[in-house]
Amino acid sequence: MRCREAAEQAGAFVDAEVSGRVRWRIRLHLATCRNCRRFVRQIALTRDALGRLPPPPLDAAREDELVAALREASR
Amino acid sequence: MRQADPVMTADLEPSDDLLLPRLRLGEEAAFRILVRRYHVRLVAIARGAHLTREAAEEAVQEAWIAVMRNIAGFEARSSLRTWLTGIVLNIARKASVSARRTATFAELTPRHDEDEGSGFDADAFLADGHWREAPWHWSEIDLERGLAGRQVWQAVEAAIAALPPDEAAVIRHRDIEGFGPRETEELLGLGEARQRVLLDRARLKIRRVFEALTRDAARA
Ligand SMILES: [Zn+2]
Q1: Of the residues B74, B96, B118, which one is the last residue of a structural domain?
Q2: Would residue B157 be called left, alpha or beta, if left means φ above 0 and alpha means ψ between -120 and 50 degrees?
Q3: Putative zinc-finger domain: from which residue to which, for each copy (chain A) (predicted)?
Q4: Which residues span the domain enclosing B76?
């Protein structure tokens, strides 16, 4: 496997969406290629960082407004 | 008036599953927790359906009311969060269609979601398949430093807003919201293979954004 192929499969690889055979071939390539190790790790870090993003807190006035709207609608 | 409620401190927040019976009883405090937990995320999801901030706020407010009215019939075949997201997307899509009926031609011109293949630059690799240039080295620590003390959510939102709409929707559902491929297919109607292509392209672009942030942090 060449870098191009390893890099193109990096997303599926870190999401565990490749077949066992492809997984094995990528692992083999990563064992000998520092550039691809770097790249694959960065793709995983990107995914994980996105999953941990804290959204800004809901504005308190807006929160009260929404709860009031819900109260109104439930009457 | 809001009061400090010990149940609402971060560590003790009840899970969605624990909230469900309270929501079914119409307990206002439970709705408040749910609203606080998901409203901002849901507005971001609604904006992905081409709505302005105000229209997205309205759509999500409408969705909350629909949720409250229908919670008794919610059968928990999907997670509460998936159900909630589906309702928001439905309302947002309808709002987006009716907004478009009154839109000007310029507003109607679709943004191109042209096929960019894998998303790598054409010259990222040499003819023999090796990297032309080694990926710049940054690690988890660099990234944490790069993201620290910034309004990262806003920075990422801006980066995602610049993506083609399908890529933006897929990376939001898969990576930010953490939905699996099947839930994402249910919500967006995009098959797993298509999700894969769009997600890979989107991640490449967001990786560059993160790389730039770590570079800035390294210079500072
Ligand atoms: Zn390689």
Answers
A1: B96
A2: alpha
A3: 3-37
A4: 16-96
Question: Do residues B30 and B63 share a domain?
Answer: yes
> Does A70 contact B153 at a Cβ distance shorter than 8 Å?
no
Inspect the interface and report whether the beta carbons of B199 and A2 lie closer than 8 Å.
Answer: no
Q: Give how many domains chain B has, as a whole number.
A: 2
Kindly report the nearest CA distance between residue B163 and chain A, in angstroms. Answer: 15
The Cα B84–Cα B70 span in angstroms is 11
Which pLDDT tens digit goes with each residue over B165-191? 999 999 999 999 999 999 999 999 999
The predicted model scores a pTM of 0.87
How far apart are the C-alpha atoms of B23 and B19, rounded to whole Å? 6
Whether residue B200 and residue A11 make contact (CB cut-off 8 A), yes or no, is: yes
Tens digit of pLDDT for each residue in B31-86? 999 999 999 999 999 998 888 999 999 999 999 999 999 998 888 888 999 999 99
ipTM for the complex? Answer: 0.93
Q: Does B132 touch chain A (CB under 8 A)?
A: no
CATH class of the A3-73 domain in this structure: mainly alpha
